[in-house]
Amino acid sequence: MKILGPIVGILWLAWLIFWLVSAFNVKKNADKSSWKNWWWIRVIIAILVIALLEFNDKAKLSFGQAVKSFTSREITYIEIFGVILVIAGLGFSVWSRIHLGRNWSNYPTHKIDHELVTSGPYRYVRHPIYTGMILGAFGTALVIGVPWFILFLIATVFF
């Protein structure tokens, strides 16, 4: 794994931190349904990510080994394109999340004082958050390798 693998990991980590922090400022749900009913999806996703990390030997390299590998081999255009896709995809999903504002929810539900958002990225794409995440997953697969392509396919089917 070259230096681009850890960079992609840092991008996803920054995205996750933004997502978790922004989840605290949302409108209350109008109904009593709960994401707890969907707990099995979170378990499956966690198992898949852990399995891919274990399966992909490249993911086990330390940062020092990544720097050494980076200096000993050139970065390919496909990997650079992958990083660009990760930045574009995660950026698009963040823009969508910010534009959605307090109407966002981590699962489909009706909010109190719900508003239909049809501007910004929602003017162009019906599900821009999912689209951005799928684009980011595809870029990650280009940078890190084939096992992550499996996660990209699963995310595409899921979303």
Distance N to C terminus: 28 Å
What's the total number of strands? Answer: 0
Return the domain count.
1
Q: According to CATH, what is the class?
A: Mainly Alpha
Structural class: mainly alpha
Radius of gyration: 17 Å
Anisotropy-based shape: globular
What is the subunit arrangement here?
single chain
> What is the residue-averaged pLDDT?
76
Note the beta-strand portion.
under 5%
Mind summarizing the main beta sheet?
Answer: none
The share of residues in helices is 55-70%
Q: Write the CATH architecture name.
A: Up-down Bundle
Count of helix runs: 6
What is the compact description of this entry?
The protein is built from 6 helices and no strands. It has helices at 4-22, 39-55, 63-72, 77-100, 128-144, 146-158.
Report on the structure:
The chain is mainly alpha-helical and 159 residues long. Helices cover 63% and strands 0% of the residues. The protein has one domain (4-158): Four Helix Bundle (Hemerythrin (Met), subunit A). It has helices spanning 4-22, 39-55, 63-72, 77-100, 128-144, 146-158. α1 packs parallel to α4 (77-100). It is globular. Residues 59-64 have low confidence and may be disordered.
List keywords for this structure.
single chain, 159 residues, mainly alpha, 0% strand
Record the SSE blueprint.
Layout: H1 4-22, H2 39-55, H3 63-72, H4 77-100, H5 128-144, H6 146-158
Helix pairs in contact: 1-4, 4-5, 5-6
